[in-house]
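=== RUN LOG ===
request id: a7f3
mode: sequence -> structure
chains: 1
length: 129
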Amino acid sequence: MLFDTTFLIEADRSGSALDDVINDEDDVAIAAVTIAELRVGVALSIGRSRRLREAFLADVEATIPALDYNAHVAREHADLLVAVRQQGRPRGAHDLIIAATARATRRTVVSADKSGFDNLPGVSVRYQR
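=== RESULT ===
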């Protein structure tokens, strides 16, 4: 499984600990770009919210391996860019990187965002809130 950012944000907002959303037998990871997205959320928040988001991000980084954007992911990313342009249905740049990472590593994207990953060729998605 490859957790997308929206899934992690929903887990954080609901007060779920990562242990609550990850079973011991689950092989989970995140795309490296997910760390960037979560860091933006930390940087744009203030006060108590910022401290809580920092703690959540630290937990994510300590618990879930981040997969690099490498040449294999780049090839999958290019294929997905072509596919969405041909479909006439653009997607967010980061969502496509997450999808490409999942496709390159043969993982299922776990997302709370139904629109970001619909109808992407070769990308398996499980929607979960």
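=== NOTES ===
The beta strands are 2-3, 29-31, 66-67, 108-111, 124-127.
The mean pLDDT is 92.
=== END ===
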